[in-house]
């Protein structure tokens, strides 16, 4: 069966379809359109029209020529699964490959998105703690967080594919995932996810007790996020709550309590909120890869609900992220390097992506999704926090000898 891609239909095709090539059952749908002056054809009830047209059978619509057919109709016949012949998966034993695919071993971008808030909060806390934390302490904490992020992201992917196994069969990008194609059974995936969660718990137990207690609730969000796509059009916010949890954990991990009345809670809360909005922003880019299939499969999401205004939504999310990053820096007492590099840099990078991204190109959306990870999460916010921390640590080493010399001088004067 051949699916329609209505977002590619120009006005001329709509007119010809409505005049000659649409059966009476679809004519009211097509004729409901109205010209707004754009290159596409918005419909007064766009969501209803989009759903009806994307679920129409290919034989219900005959296009005017082969060129139009090539532009509008895509081949829905799934290509057979082919084992990986390149990359890290090609070196693994065949029995291991399905599990490596299940945890997205060859696609680390999602793991980085989970890791970045852990880095941010650790560096911010390392700068705030008195005395300032040495680099070896910050580095070892970040290493632990990296291990935990890898394990929990892998568990999240397994849980997501377990819940979505029936939907994945109807989405072109996901129909060859291990559970969807039958390479891993639901029972095997269930036990595999359990083992991953236990491994994540083992890593969590290496942290201080307050960090452990703060980290446990995140498991609930990891498990429930895939279910949110069935009950709300805004599941990205649930994903944001889960993926941003590391923004809270860095503070107790570095010995700063969130509940002792210090500025740590305010800084952590703002950093957490900034990461939630950033998660929604980059997941909108990611979701545009599956828009057509999500509509047909009945999956809910911001892009499905508001397909025409996703760029303005992303722009608003960018403003919220930048504002909360600035507030986090204020409560943490950070200096101009952070504001120029991290806050302004993150806003500028997000703005550039929003302006340049072609949301109708699936491959381009994936490239921007990867770009935003290392540019905003790593270079801008992570880089600015690293520079701020190292500057504070270097200044501390210069100030201490001066303070010691001043104390010795005062003591000598007192003796005289």
At the first level of CATH, what is the class of the largest domain?
Answer: Mainly Alpha
| CATH homologous superfamily descriptor of the largest domain | UbiA prenyltransferase
Unreliable parts = 1-10, 16-75, 402-408, 410-415
Share of residues in strands: under 5%
Quantity of strands, as a count: 0
The whole-number mean of residue pLDDT values reads 81
Structural class: mainly alpha
Rg is 26 Å
The end-to-end distance, rounded to whole angstroms, is 98 Å
- Give the name of the CATH architecture of the largest domain: Orthogonal Bundle
Number of domains: 2
Polypeptide structure, described:
The chain is an all-alpha fold and 416 residues long. The chain has 2 domains: 6-72, no CATH class; 95-401, Orthogonal Bundle (Tetracycline Repressor, domain 2), CATH 1.10.357. Helix content is 69%, strand content 0%. It has helices spanning 11-21, 27-31, 46-54, 66-72, 97-102, 109-128, 135-163, 165-168, 178-181, 186-204, 209-215, 218-231, 235-243, 246-253, 264-287, 291-297, 302-305, 310-332, 336-356, 362-415. Helix 12 runs antiparallel to helix 13. 41% of the residues are buried.
Short account of what is shown:
It contains 20 helices and no strands.
């Amino acid at each position: 069966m051949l699916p329609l891609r209505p977002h590619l239909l120009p006005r001329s095709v709509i007119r010809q379809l409505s005049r000659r090539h649409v059966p009476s059952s679809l004519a009211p749908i097509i004729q409901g359109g109205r010209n707004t002056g754009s290159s596409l054809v918005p419909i007064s009830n766009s969501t209803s029209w989009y759903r009806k047209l994307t679920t129409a059978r290919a034989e219900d619509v005959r296009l005017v020529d082969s060129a139009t057919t090539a532009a509008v109709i895509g081949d829905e016949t799934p290509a057979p699964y082919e084992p990986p012949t390149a990359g890290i998966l090609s070196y693994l034993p065949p029995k291991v490959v399905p599990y490596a695919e299940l945890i997205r071993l060859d696609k680390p971008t999602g793991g980085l998105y989970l890791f970045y808030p852990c880095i941010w909060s650790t560096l911010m806390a390392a700068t705030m703690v008195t005395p300032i934390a040495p680099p070896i302490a910050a580095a070892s904490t970040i290493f632990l967080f990296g291990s935990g992020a890898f394990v929990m992201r892998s568990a999240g992917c397994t849980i997501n594919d377990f819940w979505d196994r029936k939907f994945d069969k109807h989405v072109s990008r996901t129909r060859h995932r291990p559970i969807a194609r039958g390479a891993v059974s639901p029972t095997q995936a269930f036990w595999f996810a359990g083992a991953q969660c236990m491994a994540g718990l083992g890593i969590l137990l290496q942290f201080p007790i307050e960090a452990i207690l703060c980290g446990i609730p995140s498991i609930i969000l990891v498990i429930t996020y895939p279910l949110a796509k069935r009950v709300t059009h805004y599941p990205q916010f649930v994903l944001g709550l889960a993926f941003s949890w590391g923004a809270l954990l860095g503070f107790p991990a570095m010995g700063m309590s969130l509940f002792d009345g210090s500025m740590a809670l305010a800084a952590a809360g703002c950093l957490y909120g900034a990461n939630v909005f950033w998660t929604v922003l980059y997941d909108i880019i990611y979701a545009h890869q599956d828009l057509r299939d999500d509509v047909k499969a009945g999956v809910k999401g911001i892009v499905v609900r508001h397909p025409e205004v996703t760029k303005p939504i992303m722009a608003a999310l960018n403003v919220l992220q930048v504002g909360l990053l600035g507030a986090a820096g204020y409560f943490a007492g950070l200096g101009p390097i952070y504001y120029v590099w991290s806050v302004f840099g993150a806003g500028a990078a997000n703005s550039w992506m929003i302006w340049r991204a072609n949301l109708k190109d699936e491959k381009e959306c994936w490239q921007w999704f990867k770009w935003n990870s290392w540019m905003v999460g790593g270079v801008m916010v992570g880089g600015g926090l690293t520079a701020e921390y190292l500057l504070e640590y270097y200044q501390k080493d210069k100030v201490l000898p001066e303070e010691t010399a001043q104390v010795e001088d005062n003591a000598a004067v007192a003796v005289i």
